[in-house]
């Protein structure tokens, strides 16, 4: 290049607007500022209000993150030493940011983070984290000061339900794997982890009043592997780990179909009173509990009571999908009674969209997976008119067990190929003809017929799950595929630093 051209290029770059930082999800408002960055070191005090235990705990999340990278962990203090640039983390119920919102101000002289509630403070910390260099994610001390670009963010989520479903029934995933998923969800401000805890191929949760369920039903998985299940202690650990990251665990026991593992464990919930043989294939639709037997209802009562005890969240999901062995009347009667049992246990009933036409009482949550089918869409809209709320999981968009493209080795194709753009570029506000308030949010299901390791899970989830997080968080008017694509490309190094096995989709220019 000629010297003049080089000069022109240098001047142009120097005067360009600071680029939008690679934040996913994109905050509602981000204003990049001129001026030097804030520089974080191990001497940067994290200042919390005296006696605010919640703010101190959230500050601890930031301290631990930075502490991996600098020499010693930044101190958490209740008063800023004079003249030292500090990060202030404040919870002020009167600040007007709602349950999950926050405001973040970064200048070279200091960082101010204010939220109205602990979850908002935590999300503000996740934004600050994403403003730090990607190397902050390495679990090795690489001492170097950490610059944070000068920026002002005012943020809150579009939807209250921003979820992922993990199918631990087709293949079992250890507690550590679930914790890894929770960590990666938290990075993107997701707040619902739906665990699909039972299916034909496995029963994955200890129900103390029915020990055979886990003991027998937990021994199998797709392909004949060893299976496994979570003990009461394991579940308590998962629930606690999630709660520390402001994530609610939504348990699902699939009923009345997808029940072969239970039918193998408890003979008396079969109409002939005989235990079924274990199943390790991948067919669907062939199993059902015996809806005419009182033994079945005693079983449902016991299971729901135990779920209500083990999971503090408000929702219990009872599946309801793909039942081919019952008449429409039998199916509807089952769903009505199952919902009543959940409600009597003090919880909110959720089911797949198959339950939409089964005469739900008001207050049900319907998880919509077949919005592309006109008959299902009309049934769901009618259920909303009758008081149901929706979680949107359109299978032709955000079933992240679908292959990305023809090159994907893992995954299924029945709902089509779900590329990175397909998964991102749609608006939950117009998917169905329902009032805005009826949509609680979005959730990406990850079915695990073809997935058996956490690396498989990561590969299918990333980058698509990040896009789902943005759909659930960012105002529709602030979203565009072009803008997202650029931020996604720049986000890659952070996942790499975290060791996240992700698909380097050709749809994206990766940094
Ligand atoms: C359909 S989606 C199912 C699951 C399968 C999934 C595979 C839904 C409610 N049921 O049983 O695992 O397809 O993509």
Strand order of the largest sheet: 14-11-10-19-18-17-16-15
Q: Strand portion, in percent? A: 15-25%
> Low-confidence segments, ≥5 residues, pLDDT <50?
1-16
Helix content: 25-40%
Shape: globular
Instruction: Give the end-to-end Cα distance, rounded to a whole number of Å.
Output: 24 Å
Bound small-molecule species:
ligand TNX
**What is the count of β-strands?**
19
- Number of domain units: 2
Cα-atom radius of gyration = 24 Å
Main sheet: strands, sense, barrel: 8 strands, parallel
CATH-level-4 superfamily name of the largest domain:
Glycosidases
CATH topology of the largest domain: TIM Barrel
Alpha-beta content class: alpha/beta
Number of helices: 15
Indicate the CATH class of the largest domain.
Alpha Beta
Q: Averaged pLDDT, please? A: 95
Second-tier CATH architecture of the largest domain? Alpha-Beta Barrel
Active site: 322 (proton donor)
Domain Beta-hexosaminidase bacterial type N-terminal: 21-155
EC number: 3.2.1.52
Protein name: beta-N-acetylhexosaminidase
Provide a descriptive summary of the structure in words:
- The protein is an alpha/beta fold.
- It is 34% helix and 16% strand.
- The chain is built from 15 helices and 19 strands.
- Strand 17, helix 10 (374-385) and strand 18 (389-392) form a beta-alpha-beta unit.
- Helix 2 (53-67) runs parallel beside helix 3 and helix 4 (175-187) packs parallel to helix 6 (232-244).
- The two termini are 24 Å apart.
- The relative contact order is 0.11.
- The model is unreliable at 1-16 (pLDDT under 50).
- Bound molecules: ligand TNX.
- Ligand TNX binds next to loops.
- Belongs to the glycosyl hydrolase 20 family.
- Residues 21-155 form the Beta-hexosaminidase bacterial type N-terminal domain.
- Residues 1-16 form the signal peptide.
- The active site is at residue 322.
């Amino acid at each position: 290049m000629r010297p003049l051209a080089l000069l022109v290029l240098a001047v142009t770059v120097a005067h360009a607007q600071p680029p939008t930082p690679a934040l996913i999800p994109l905050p509602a408002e981000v204003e990049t500022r001129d001026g030097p960055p804030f520089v974080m070191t191990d001497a940067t005090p994290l200042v919390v209000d005296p006696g605010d235990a919640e703010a101190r705990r959230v500050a601890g999340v930031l301290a631990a993150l930075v502490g991996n990278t600098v020499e010693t962990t930044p101190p958490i203090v209740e008063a800023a030493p004079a003249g030292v640039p500090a990060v202030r983390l404040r919870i002020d119920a009167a600040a007007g940011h709602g349950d999950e919102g926050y405001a973040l101000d970064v200048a070279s002289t200091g960082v101010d983070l204010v939220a109205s509630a602990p979850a908002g403070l935590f999300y503000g910390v996740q934004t600050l984290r994403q403003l730090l260099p990607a190397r902050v994610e390495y679990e090795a001390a690489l001492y170097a000061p950490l610059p944070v670009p000068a920026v002002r963010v005012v943020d809150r989520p579009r939807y209250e339900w921003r979820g992922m479903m993990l199918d631990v029934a087709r293949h079992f995933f250890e507690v550590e794997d679930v914790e890894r998923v929770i960590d990666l969800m938290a990075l993107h401000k997701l707040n619902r982890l739906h665990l699909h805890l039972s299916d034909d191929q496995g029963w994955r949760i200890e129900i103390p009043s029915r020990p055979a369920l886990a003991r027998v039903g937990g021994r199998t998985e797709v392909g004949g592997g060893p299976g496994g299940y979570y003990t009461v202690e394991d579940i308590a650990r998962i629930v606690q780990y999630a709660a520390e990251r402001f994530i609610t665990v939504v348990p699902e026991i699939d009923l009345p179909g997808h029940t072969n593992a239970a039918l193998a464990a408890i003979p008396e919930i079969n109409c002939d009173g005989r235990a079924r043989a274990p199943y390790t294939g991948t067919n669907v639709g062939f199993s059902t509990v015996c809806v005419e037997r009182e033994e079945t209802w005693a079983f449902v009562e016991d299971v729901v009571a135990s779920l209500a005890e083990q999971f503090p969240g408000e929702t219990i999901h009872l599946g309801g999908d793909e039942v081919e062995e019952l008449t429409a009347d039998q199916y509807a009667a089952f769903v009505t009674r199952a919902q009543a049992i959940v409600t009597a246990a003090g919880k909110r009933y959720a089911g797949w969209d198959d339950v939409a036409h089964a005469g739900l009482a008001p207050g049900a949550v319907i998880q919509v997976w077949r919005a592309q089918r006109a008959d299902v869409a009309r049934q769901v809209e009618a259920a909303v008119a009758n008081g149901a709320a929706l979680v949107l999981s359109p299978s032709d968009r955000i079933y992240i067990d679908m292959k990305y493209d023809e090159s994907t080795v893992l995954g299924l194709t029945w709902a089509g190929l779900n590329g990175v753009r397909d998964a991102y570029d749609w608006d939950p506000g117009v998917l169905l003809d329902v009032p805005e308030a009826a949509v609680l949010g979005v959730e990406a299901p990850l079915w695990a017929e073809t997935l058996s390791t956490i690396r498989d899970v990561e590969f299918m989830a990333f980058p698509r799950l990040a896009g789902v997080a943005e759909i659930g968080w960012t105002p529709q008017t602030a979203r565009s595929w072009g803008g997202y694509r650029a931020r996604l490309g720049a986000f890659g190094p952070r996942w790499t630093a975290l060791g996240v096995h992700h698909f380097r989709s050709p749809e994206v220019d990766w940094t």
